[in-house]
Structure prediction request, 403 residues.
Amino acid sequence: MSEPTGPLKGLRVFDLTRVLAGPTCAQMLGDLGADVIKIEKPGAGDDTRGFAPPFMPGTKESAYFVGVNRNKRSVTLDIATPEGQELALALIADCDILVENFKVGALAKYGLGYEQLHKKFPRLVYCSITGFGQTGPYAPRPGYDSLIQGMGGVMSLTGEPEGQPQKVGVPVADLFAGLYGCIGILAAIRHRDATGIGQQIDIGMLDTHVAWLANQGMNFLATGENPVRLGNQHPNIVPYQVFPTQDGYMVLSIGNDPTFKRFCEAFELTHLLADERFATNAARVANRKLVTDTLTPTIKTHPTKWWVDRLEKLKIGCGPINTLKEVFADPHVQARGVVVEMAHTSLPGGTVKVIANPVRLSETPADYRLPPPVLGEHTEQVLKERLGLDDAKLADLRAKGII
Prediction:
């Protein structure tokens, strides 16, 4: 394996996660230089290995798995067996961080719960990511992204006013939980380095989901009233929404009164500035249907590109609504290096494309040293390197189904 170069170089991670929230957290640590050992069940592995099609071209690896498992070494290990638990403890003894997303209390029956490990390894930082956290009446429940989106309120805010509540088109509940977990780990590592004492990070998907309700959550706390679904409109700013154009749709984002004045002056709408229903953002919010109905005929007179070209020159927020094909073909996206190609074990001499880490560090950039592993790819390497096991012992463990 090539040497890591990121700011977390030297940190070792025992990764007991699968699906999305936990693997997202662990991949971020790996991208920043940590040595991540991903523990998978022999013969099965992470559930997302089976979340296909689509597969990555030329491989038997699901696109889902490949997206959140680079910079990890895959070790197959049956932690349900006493011998597997002994090996797990031996590996954890040499680790700084453990990340897990098992149900609350599930790892304790294997001797791998937080309280058990904290006594043995007081410096270990232990991150638990669950649906509802370690405490509270819902703690025993399993957590799933769409379930959390529903219970956490965002579905009540998303969708057309007269339509069904809608989930976001990507699994944001999982992703936010993983990222908040990574933030917690980094804070706990700093504390550990200062005091010598590790701790548990308790991440509940419902907690993190409520946390990112942001302005909408605060709108409720300020008024006691449930925000209504507004489709593609903004609850606090108008016009800040999707408009139909001559050939499709675009987003128009007018964030303040001076920008609205500039917009009206540029497109022969100055008469609106004398109308008190349009004069201020507060008035436009109160009259959002009137504003939408008034501007729509004007915007539909020209195609999207016509509007984008002119609005950009006026420094007025706007943009097309891109398909993913258009996103990845966008010259700015390409200039920012948002897609990275990595060699892959299943493709000798070939590469797979992955989405780059968006954290841009000037001195210690993200490190793309290990492609997403095939199941158990590094089992023997890690057990020899970390525990000094010889070929005979490895063969015995494999024959027993422990690895």
Q: What stands out?
A: The first strand starts at residue 12 and ends at 16.
